[in-house]
Design brief:
mainly alpha
C-alpha cells in the first residue's frame, strides 16, 4: 500500500493500515494536467451517452411520455451516487477513487471486489463501444464492405494511442467529444422549441400537449412499462463516477469537483428529461422505434437534410468517448490495486508521460477479445457484453454508497471530519439508493430473457472473485506489512 504519514501524536486506531491523511500509494507519479474545463466536460460526457441518443427511441415506444419520469428518477439516484463520491473526493482526492475509498472504509476485500468489478464493467463496455463504432460506421457506404471486426480494431487502436500519450491529450479528446454531444442536443432542442412555439406541423400534425393527451396520456401503457424500463435507463448514467477518478490528476480538486458534481443535476433535467418531454410533444410516442435514434425520427419528418448522417456521427462520437473514458479510468484503478497487491504488479507500470500504461493495456487486451467476438458473432456481440457490464455498474454504485455510509459513521464517532461539501440526508439517502439498486437487479430477473441470464451470471462472477482473492491475498498481506514497516518502493514507476 504506502508509507504512513509521520505524526506528532499517535493516530486513532484504525481497522487497517490506510491513513486518510496520506495519499493512496497508487497516486504517486501522476501529472496534474486536467483543467477545470476538462473535468466539467468529462462530467457532461459521463452523464450523456448513447442511452439518450440511441436508446430513448425504443424506450419511448414502450413506456410513452412517462419515460421522462424514469430518466428523472434514475438521474436522481445517479446524482446521489456522484454527490457521495464527491464528498469522498474532498475527504481525500485519489486517482484510485472508490477503490481507494473501499480500501480505507471496507478493507482490502472491498477494494479488491470494487476494482475488479469496475474492470469487468469497463472492459465489457469497451467491447460494446468498439462494436457500436463498427456498427455505426457501416451506416456510411464508404465502410459497408469493411469487416466489422476490422473497424472495431481500428477504433481501439486510435483510442488506445491517445490514452497512452498523456492525460492532457485524453482530457482534450473528452472535451471535444462532449462539445459535439452537447451541441447536437442544444441544436435539436432549439429546433424542437421553435416547432412548438411556431406550431409548425410535424408529420402532418401540430405539436403540443394535445399530442400526449390524444395518444393515451402520460402513461399510455400504464405504470408497469415505466417501472420495467428503469433497468435500461439506469445504465444511461453509467459513467458519472468518472469524476472521482479524474480528481487525482487535477491541481484543484476541492474547487473543480463540487462544481462538476452540482452541474450534473441540471444537466440531467435539461438534456434527459427535457429532451424526452420535447420528443413526446412533437410526435406521438408510438411513432418512435428502437431501430432509429428518436432525434433522427423527428428531424427526418420535418425534412432536415442529412439528419441521419449527423446523428450517426454524434452517436459514434459518444461510443468513442465511452471507450476513451474506460481505458483512462481502468488504468488508474488497476494501478491503485497493483500497488496494494490485488492486481498484477505490471498493471501498476507508468510510462515517461506519467500514464499508467500497464492497466490500460490490460483493458485493451480484453477489448481485443471483443474484436474476436465481432468476428465470430457480429450480430450478438453488443448485447452479450452490455449485460455483463450492467452488473459492474450496479456493484460500483453500491460500493460507493457503502463507503460513504462507513465514512459518515466514522465522522460521527469523531475519527475524521466531513468536508463542508456533503451528501444531504445521510444515512437515509444511501440506504434508499442501495434499495433502488437491488430493485434494478430484481427488475432484470423479472424481465426474463437476457436480463435473467445476466442475473444468473452473478454466482459465476462471485465464484471467480473468491478464487481470485485466495490467489492474491498473500501478496496483499505482504504489501500491507511492507507499507506498515515503511518499505514502500513505488513498484511500477519507470520514470
Amino acid at each position: 500500500m504506502r508509507k504512513e504519514a509521520v505524526q506528532d501524536t499517535p493516530p486513532p486506531p484504525r481497522e487497517h493500515p490506510v491513513d486518510a491523511s496520506s495519499p493512496d500509494a497508487g497516486d504517486a507519479g501522476y501529472s496534474k494536467d486536467l483543467k477545470s474545463r476538462h473535468i466539467n466536460m468529462i462530467a457532461i460526457g459521463g452523464a450523456i451517452g448513447t442511452g439518450l441518443f440511441l436508446g430513448a427511441g425504443g424506450r419511448l415506444a414502450s413506456a410513452g411520455p412517462a419515460l421522462a419520469l424514469a430518466y428523472a428518477v434514475c438521474g436522481l439516484f445517479a446524482f446521489f451516487v456522484v454527490r457521495a463520491l464527491g464528498e469522498l473526493v474532498l475527504h481525500r482526492p485519489s486517482s484510485g477513487s472508490f477503490v481507494s475509498y473501499a480500501r480505507e472504509f471496507l478493507g482490502e476485500k472491498g477494494a479488491y471486489t470494487a476494482g475488479w468489478m469496475y474492470v469487468v464493467n469497463w472492459s465489457t463496455t469497451g467491447i460494446a463501444d468498439i462494436t457500436a463504432v463498427a456498427l455505426y460506421a457501416h451506416y456510411w457506404s464508404l465502410f459497408t464492405e469493411v469487416p466489422q471486426w476490422t473497424l472495431a480494431l481500428v477504433a481501439l487502436a486510435v483510442v488506445l494511442s491517445v490514452n497512452l500519450i498523456s492525460v492532457k491529450i485524453f482530457g482534450e479528446m473528452e472535451f471535444w467529444f462532449a462539445i459535439i454531444k452537447v451541441a447536437a442536443l442544444v441544436a435539436f432542442m432549439a429546433i424542437g422549441i421553435f416547432l412548438l412555439v411556431t406550431q409548425q406541423p410535424v408529420d402532418g400534425q401540430t405539436p403540443g400537449l394535445h399530442v400526449i393527451a390524444d395518444n393515451g396520456g402520460f402513461f399510455p401503457s400504464g405504470l408497469l412499462p415505466v417501472v420495467v424500463v428503469l433497468q435500461g435507463v439506469v445504465f444511461a448514467y453509467a459513467a458519472v463516477e468518472l469524476i472521482g477518478v479524474t480528481a487525482g490528476e487535477t491541481a484543484e480538486p476541492h474547487k473543480v469537483v463540487p462544481r462538476a458534481v452540482n452541474s450534473i443535476m441540471w444537466r440531467v433535467l435539461v438534456f434527459y428529461v427535457g429532451s424526452v418531454v420535447l420528443l413526446a410533444l412533437l410526435i406521438p410516442y408510438d411513432g418512435y422505434s428502437a431501430s432509429e435514434s428518436p432525434f433522427v425520427t423527428v428531424l427526418s419528418k420535418i425534412g432536415v437534410p442529412a439528419a441521419g448522417d449527423v446523428m450517426n456521427l454524434v452517436v459514434l462520437t459518444a461510443a468513442m468517448s465511452s471507450l476513451n473514458s474506460g481505458l483512462y479510468s481502468t488504468g488508474r484503478i488497476l494501478r491503485s490495486m497493483a500497488m496494494a497487491g490485488s492486481a498484477p504488479r505490471w498493471t501498476g507500470l507508468m510510462n515517461r508521460h506519467q500514464v499508467p500504461y500497464g492497466g490500460i493495456m490490460l483493458t485493451a487486451a480484453v477489448c481485443v477479445l471483443g474484436v474476436g467476438l465481432n468476428y465470430v458473432v457480429p450480430g450478438e456481440a453488443f448485447e452479450i457484453v452490455l449485460n455483463i457490464a450492467a452488473l459492474g455498474v450496479l456493484t460500483t454504485w453500491a460500493i460507493i454508497m457503502l463507503c460513504h455510509l462507513v465514512f459518515v459513521r466514522r465522522a460521527r464517532e469523531g475519527r475524521l471530519a466531513r468536508p463542508s461539501y456533503q451528501l444531504p440526508g445521510s444515512p437515509f439517502v444511501e440506504l434508499v439508493t442501495l434499495a433502488f439498486l437491488a430493485g434494478v437487479v430484481v427488475l432484470m430477473w423479472s424481465d426474463g430473457g437476457v436480463g435473467r441470464r445476466t442475473v444468473l451470471l452473478i454466482p459465476v462472477i462471485a465464484a471467480a472473485l473468491v478464487v481470485g482473492w485466495f490467489a492474491v491475498r498473500g501478496r496483499v498481506r505482504d504489501t500491507a506489512a511492507s507499507a506498515a514497516s515503511g518499505d514502500t518502493a513505488p513498484a511500477g514507476d519507470t520514470r
